[in-house]
Amino acid sequence: MEINLNRPYGLQTSPPAKPELAFYCENNRDLLFENGPIEIRCRAGIHSAGMNWNLARNFFKKAFLQGSAEAQPENVYVIRFSAEGLHPGFYDLRVILDTGDGKTVEGVCTFGFNVSQMPIRDSRPADFRAFWDRALAKLAALPLDPKSGEMKVFKGVEIDEYNLKSASLPGDYDPSGHRCNEVEACKIDFGSVNGRRIHAWLAKPLGDGPFPAMLVLPGGGFNSRPIPLEHARHGYLAIDIQIHGQEVDLKEYPQIPGYFKDFVYEPVEANYFHDMYLNAVQAVNYLLSRADVDKDRLAVVGGSQGGRTGVTTAALHPKVKATVPAIAHYGNLPYLRWAETCNSANPQKDGMELSGPPPLPDTPENRCCAYYDVMNFAQDVKCPTMINAGLVDPVSLASGVFAIYNRLGAVNKWMIPLPGLAHDWSAEFDRSAWRWLDEVWKNPAAAPKGVRGGSLKIVCLGDSITGKSDLSSYLKWSHIIELMLLPGAAESAVVVNRGIGGDTTAGVLKRLKSDVLDIRPDIVVLLIGGNDAGQKIPRETVEKNLDLIMGDIVSAGVKLLALQYHVIPNPENPETAWKYLDSNNDLVAAAAARSGAALLDMAAPMREAAKNRPVKELVNVRDGVHLNPGGELVFAAEVFKKLKALGWIPESSHRMTDGWMVR
After folding, report:
1. Per residue in 509-545, pLDDT tens?
2. Nearest CA to 173 among 479, 437, 430?
């Protein structure tokens, strides 16, 4: 789907991947780790005598850690080290294999560590959207003036032969995805910015449609375009555009200034990529102008530069209904510039002194490129998005692709990490993408989403009732939920405790982005507002804060369960109970209703538990609020039961009855 090179299909994979060295982790297929120690294995496909390794940040030349691998009799080498000191992000594990004859083979394996928490420099200009809205308004005033050439029909074997000879594809890698066996194709062109005409190949099933539409965006450089026959065989009316305004089948392609060299940074709109991005948007307008296009099923796909413009086009055109950007290039430029600076320093720097976002000097280049950095478009992408990343890709760095993914505004977004692959194509990713689109067209909400192999991530957010206890004494309810989830999650489940003793709605609002939204949870369980009552904060202020907190969580595409407070007085000394704590429960319920959050009143189950157990087992006997071990179990069981009833957690997880976990 996303590969679109006009050349013969080949067997050689892209460097630095090497068939002599195969890296893997026995219990982590995607090499995305959330805790240590880190253990990665390398199987040597040739005779060998030993292996040394070193570790560097992604795209950094200077290593900060090194060692010798543990050799196994089956010609496998085990590399193991602590995760202590690793910052969230990606790392390049470089190995040197001793072949035993005085020669060596070098290889690299890139892995991620807590990548959802990877610090990203916020470089999006304040007028970013206004800048592009002005450009789109000018584009809208231009005539399309579409033109078409003569149609030619292609049948089954002809499509197979064309794929092998001219589309860099296997003859037929997805027969179960065929929707037709005959397609027709022609040249088209249409008007765009600065008087250019954009040329493309169009291919579609025979007939009048309407067909789902697909814009196939090209990779980098100036070159000819293949006919998207495979896309048409999958049932799409597809166009593969020559994005630079050149013909689709020239013998030679002259370079246009500003692309590979002679860069222009001032004024910003004179940069080469300004018009290139708009040319892709105009291609969507062309598709929408056709009577044989189903305008509710329009996808944008591409690899490398095509992945880059797949994101920018989906961000700039609201009629794009789905996008599949593969190995997207040109994302997270602040990280790339920082790595380049450290690599060129004398002496070189390993970058490990920095745990936060990379620096970004104020230069004309950096100011300009911020308007074209793909990650700065990501928050405006609202349509379903399926994206991949070749982890050892030296062109579209994993640090760049995951920055794009982490910032996507789409509720339905699916990341497929490709460990061991570089700037390359995967037949199975393509097949998965075709099926994913089928699901999107049926029901966008039901299509697969998340990070393949990643964790179900739940954040428990609130005050001391949520906040961390002394774990040497007993587990908090958040930790118990994590234990209950482990057997049923597809890969793994993580529950992150973000409770702080004494916190208020204002405090949660202040830390909401850094503590919660930036780590991209799937679910947030919120309990807040009790301390506001104790501090006599005006109810209208609490109401406003609750609306902002819940609104921000839900609008980020995160499922939200809001809890209401309990107060369980000690019958022997009821006057000491914090009876004020639940006085804002009505505000919590009202804010949940307005935001669309789910609601769970914890008072009822806690009162019910108090009928059968001493209060001191459930709560602190003085305040009637802070949880003792029995109360932690009640909280965990009730929250877990609610999450399961909502369909937010796996059906096969443990359930809890009377304080015991059972299957």
Report:
1. 999 988 888 777 889 999 999 999 999 999 999 999 9
2. 430
